[in-house]
Amino acid sequence: MKKISFLLLLMMAAVGTQAQDAAKILNELSAKAKKYQSIEAEYTSRMIDKINGVDISTQGSIKIKGEKYHLDLGDYTLISDGATLWTYQKESNECMIDDLADMEDEAFNPSDMFTLWEQDFKNEYKGEVNVDGVDCFLIHLYPTDTEERDFHTIKMYIDKNKMELFKMEVKGREGSDMVYKVKSFKTNTSLSDAVFKFNKALYPGVEMIDNRF
After folding, report:
1. What SS3 class is residue 34?
2. To which H or E segment does residue 156 belong?
3. How many CB atoms lie within 10 A of CB 23?
4. Is 101 exposed, middle or buried (0-12, 13-18, 19+ CB in 10 A)?
5. Residues of 183-199 as b/e, b for ≥16 C-beta within 10 angstroms?
6. 71-104 pLDDT tens trace
7. Could you tell me which residues are beta bridge partners of residue 21?
8. Residue range(s) defining the domain that contains residue 179
9. Measured in whole angstroms, how far is the alpha carbon of residue 172 from the centre of its chain?
10. Three-class SS of residue 196?
11. Pair 110, 71: CB distance under 8 Å
12. What is the DSSP letter of 197?
């Protein structure tokens, strides 16, 4: 009986240590991200649909300055100056204009990806792993509002030496997963405010669709 009690205490201590490790790492990651004046990153995204046998990889890039962002997803480009959101669709050569204030429940600010774990997530430290030659901390995030999410787990691979997000896997509920891997990450670079406004001259023949009232 004493042996069983001792084992239970060891297991409880291990769980408590893992929770502290995860919180410490994530808090350090958040604190570092909040000090950045600007962020420029390039990444690869991979969609894996196990049910339909789809495996598609694309290149993407993002620029962030405060609440402003310029997100290039290949087929789509999202640009915001903090008040207006321009969504450009490459295939149709159309750009929708929306007021962020009217999209409060729908709009997602990409800068949130660097602190998304601060709210509505439980976390679990999974130890250290090596990914493509990079030593990483592996942390799993589980949404607390499960009914409102189309995924059940986010796997975060954090570069141990740089303390930066290196890779993220979003595990979908319907068999479709997304994998994001950072190729380059620069901070505190000089970004003109013009980067965060849609420039029609760069998209000849674009049709502007203004949804603002």
Report:
1. coil
2. strand 151-159
3. 14
4. exposed
5. eeeeeeeebeeebbebe
6. 888 888 999 998 999 999 999 999 999 998 776 5
7. none
8. 2-210
9. 15
10. helix
11. yes
12. S
Whole-number Å distance between alpha carbons of 47 and 151: 13
Token output for 74: 């290949």
pLDDT given at position 1: 44
Q: Which residues of the chain have pLDDT under 70?
A: 1-20, 103-113, 148
* C-alpha–C-alpha distance, residues 69 and 73, integer Å: 13
pLDDT of 171 reads: 87
Please give the tally of structural domains in the chain.
1
81: CATH: 2.50.20.10
Beta-carbon contacts of 163 under 8 Å, excluding residues fewer than 6 positions away, are: 25, 28, 29, 32
Side-chain-facing half-sphere of 141: CA atoms under 13 Å: 25
SS3 53: coil
Read off the amino acid at residue 136: C
Of 191, 181, 185, 179, nearest in space to 154 by CA = 179
pLDDT in tens, 181-195: 888 888 899 999 999
List Cβ<8 Å contacts ≥24 apart for 169-175.
173/149, 174/51, 174/150, 175/49, 175/50, 175/51
